[in-house]
Amino acid sequence: MRTLAASAALLAALATPARPLATQELIELPAEDRLLDADFEEVYRVGSVDGGGWDMFGNVAGLGFDGVGNLYILDPLAMRISVVDPEGILVRQFIGEGEGPGEFEREFAKALRMAVMRDGMVAVYDPEYVGFALFGADGEFDRTIPMGGDRWRWPILPDLQVFPGMERVLSTTSVIYMSRPDPGPRPQFRHAFSYDLSGDEAVVDTAARAWNPPSDRHAFKPELIAAALASGGVVYSDSSAYAIKFAAPDSRVTRIVTRPLRPEPITNRIKAEEIERRLESFQTRRAATGDPTRQAAVHAMIEAERARIESMEFYAEIPVLLEMRTDWAGTIWVHRRGEYPDTEGPIDLLTPEGSYVGTLPAGIALPDAFGPDGLVAFVETDGFDLPYVVVKRFRGGTH
């Protein structure tokens, strides 16, 4: 008998323009977790708090490994990319603030995004010029590649992932546009795009097309989360159920993998607690960012944000999945949500074809970057809320 989650996944697939359903393979994974050993051996960590070191990070907005295990760390507040070798020793730093080649304006720093190719080439998305700045493995500026397609809409890209062995990157969640094309109805679909950087202009293609909730004000709405596959296709999820879709390079869905794990329903208690939690978090941010020279404008922004939080809408269910990434071996890491309010649920590991490998227990963070030979990197914060980076080597097995 098909479970509720599998049925929901099937309906979600029907809502996505893709191949006719007859050619989509539906795989139902087992309901019971098969626990894996969580063997993460620390290799090194970088991040100083005394203010005197090169690794005093203001913010870590991107991590990436190259093919020899060097780690690249993007700090947009310091306006630099730091490269450390497999022992954690600084190799070089590059990019900077300014208007010259390989430099970026401070105003747009927080929206910079980085992708690291296996040969050490680095692509930095610059929203000011709506294009990618490419740097060689030596950190020297190579060229700028303007965005093709609808660059006039000012896209803001989420996290980026490189397609293995390609000069092509993926937006791992929905792309946000600063300028809507028209004031018409809300778009029916959200998109994750791929960007081919091998030419003089970035070639933009749809990697995944997903259902779009009818309102921007949903809390716990099913997000579009995607990860790159070595085939040039992607794996993604866009529903509240455990339904993972495999899309070919032309964005056609060829396979759907489900597990009979039911989404947690939204209750009045959860709604009230979530609104209160967001209001408390907003109050903290407000106290930290108040500017006496612009009190009127700040007050208007505060009231608008408060009204938005208090009137926010809730999707009927809390999505089962939080995040999804693929490592260098092609293994798919699927981070499940814990029972509300806990967000750190277990992590399922799937083969590149979608077969079930096993599950890492709850409480383990999903790595922020994957590298060769099992290297993984995590962004953590200290007691002063300053970020640092921990690099470990993962070796997992079944109990």
Short description:
With 399 residues, the protein is mostly beta strands. The chain has helices at residues 4-15, 268-289, 295-310, and strands at 25-28, 40-46, 62-65, 71-75, 80-84, 90-94, 96-97, 103-104, 113-116, 122-126, 131-135, 141-146, 155-156, 160-162, 168-171, 176-177, 189-196, 203-211, 218-219, 225-228, 234-237, 243-247, 253-258, 264-265, 313-314, 317-318, 321-326, 332-336, 347-350, 356-360, 369-370, 375-381, 387-394.
Molecular structure report:
The structure is a single chain. With 399 residues, this protein is mainly beta. Helix content is 13%, strand content 37%. The chain contains three helices and 33 strands. It has helices at 4-15, 268-289, 295-310, and strands at residues 25-28, 40-46, 62-65, 71-75, 80-84, 90-94, 96-97, 103-104, 113-116, 122-126, 131-135, 141-146, 155-156, 160-162, 168-171, 176-177, 189-196, 203-211, 218-219, 225-228, 234-237, 243-247, 253-258, 264-265, 313-314, 317-318, 321-326, 332-336, 347-350, 356-360, 369-370, 375-381, 387-394. A five-stranded mixed beta sheet has the order 1-23-22-21-20. It has a four-stranded antiparallel beta sheet with strand order 2-33-32-31, with no helix packed on it. A four-stranded antiparallel beta sheet has the order 3-4-5-6, with no helix packed on it. Helix 2 (268-289) runs antiparallel to helix 3. The longest helix is centred in the last third of the chain and has 22 residues, at 268-289. 32% of the residues are buried. Mean pLDDT is 86; it is low at 1-22 and 285-291.
